[in-house]
Amino acid sequence: MRKGVLELCVLRVVQKGEAYTSDLSQALKKADILVVEGTLYPLLTRLKNAGWLEYRWEESKAGPPRKYYTLTSSGEELLATLDKEWNQFVNAVNALSQS
Amino acid sequence: MKKTIDIHLGGLLFHLDEDAYDRIFAYLEAVKQRLKNEEGYDEMLRDIESRLAELFFASLHPGKQVISIHEVTSAMETLGRPEDFSENSHQNEPIADTTEASVSSGKAMKRLFRDVENGFVGGVSGGLGSYFQLDPIIFRVLFLVLFFGKGIGLIAYFILWVAIPGAKSTAQKLAMRGEEVNIENIKKSVEEEAQRMKARFQEGIHEVAPAARHAAQGMGQATHQILKGLGRALSSLLRIIGFIFLLGLGAAGIALTVIGTFGFSWHGEAESGNVMDLFLTILPSDMASSIFWLATGTLVLGLLIEIVALILRFTFRAKITPYAWRLIHGIAILSAMVGVIIWVFIGLRTGLEFRQEAYYMRSLELKEPQSHFVLAMSSQRLPHERNPWQTHGKAKMGNAEEEGTWSTDGNEIYFEGIALDIKQSLRNVPSMEVLIEAHSGNRRTARLKASRVEYSLEVRQDSLLVGDVIHFPFEDRFRGQNVRFTLYLPIGHKVYLDQSLLGYLDHVDNLQNVYGPKMVGKYWLMTERGLRLWEGSIR
Lengths: 99, 539
Prior knowledge:
The structure holds two protein chains of two kinds. Chain A is of the alpha+beta class. Chain A has a single domain, classed as Winged helix-like DNA-binding domain superfamily/Winged helix DNA-binding domain (Arc Repressor Mutant, subunit A). Chain A has helices at 2-16, 21-30, 40-49, 73-98, and strands at residues 53-58, 66-71. Chain B folds into three domains: 1-96 and 182-205, no CATH class; 233-352, no CATH class; 356-534, no CATH class. Chain B contains 16 helices and 18 strands. Chain B starts with a strand and ends in a 5-residue tail after the last strand. The chains are: A alpha+beta, B alpha+beta.
């Protein structure tokens, strides 16, 4: 489940604008979700291979070129679906805890 | 000063110090193990390496060119533990153990290393303490106790110091402590892997089976380590032996050579605590024993200083300045030289006391035998034959065929200094002549010493019984005292040579021209021309 939630979070951050690994990890950290960057690499690679993310290279003054990730159109669709699922899920959980 | 290793990460070149290299190499290996079954493995690895390069790059500035363990650790904190790289980390899945990765868990056990950093001497006790999870002080005390038990502790320590490798790398230090931190375990085993691979790349042998290669490399390293230690130990040992050999041989050798030139050879054995007796049986009687101790003391002191200095240097790796070294060597050699000089002086003095020989003669007229004389040897016991703890040795006079045993009880020196001869009597009376020989610095004292030699000669009717041992006062020292018994037979007299004379009749002239062993057990007749075998009847 954590894997799924993390996926959703990553997609959301990327949706706001193209992101580099460290941007992602910082954004997630700010939201108290992630601790380390390491976890992101398999995730990003998997999402990219699935066609939901794409990246472009950008030269960096501070080292090797960076990969900046953006959502593909199918990624947008996936995010919409996941959002819907997530809201349903949250509502369900909330409903259970309120009853 | 530290060695650096160059690596390139994400297309950039970095200088890493050894610890940092070991650490990051192990880390990446562990990450690879985690990710190797994931899709897009190569890409992920490239991304991770790029990110590492970026983190390293950010930490460098003109005043900081080398990546140290600190930068590696902070980069690792940013990226996370190898376990974090797996998306399935929450399943607590063990690291794949089907392939080479098995080394990670299998070899991540405690190993015996010397604790070089925290060691008191060579880190042996510290290492043993870490290994057995005991306070190192226990081992230190043990070595110390064994050291006083005939130096076994020192030898044991030295051997262990040579044999046990020092924990140099971080991995070895961790292995020494047997730390169970996951990443460290992996790191250590991976480091072994790294060593192997490094060697393989260096030698450019990719074809050789990895297992064989690994074994060969391991053996090579172990052999190298042992040889290095042995070489170090051997070179110091050789120096010590050479030093002892030269000085000891020089001293004792010169003394005995001087004595030897006077036709007398002597050697002693001392069991129990009678070493002093051993030397005093031959050293000049008027020489104060303190001179002897002075010589021995300074010689031994010189050797001890040298040995201790060498031990300090090679075993305990003491830091001694070259000036101090010269001083120590100087004192050691000077002290030993003083010892040698006194020993040579003692040797010369002793040798000179063999210079002058003198004889003391007694003659015993014998009664006419009924038919013949019987000449026999009575075997007497030496002090050490009664009490094995008495000092004893062997000695040989210049013209004697064989060595005789000597022995002392501290009051008298006993010696098998006996020879027998049979000659024609120029008078018409049979007689036994006893010729006692002794040496000294001058004729007078030599004769005096000869007169003090006691022998045993029993005459029972026609039987002549000669004792095989002579003795003389301990104060007279060993000065070549020996007794020659000569039986003078008038022509026509017969003598039976008893079997007990075997070994004492080597120079008896006879018409048969035979040596002692063929003379015993037979009757001999004195003729005008000499002693002749008598095969006729005995009345």
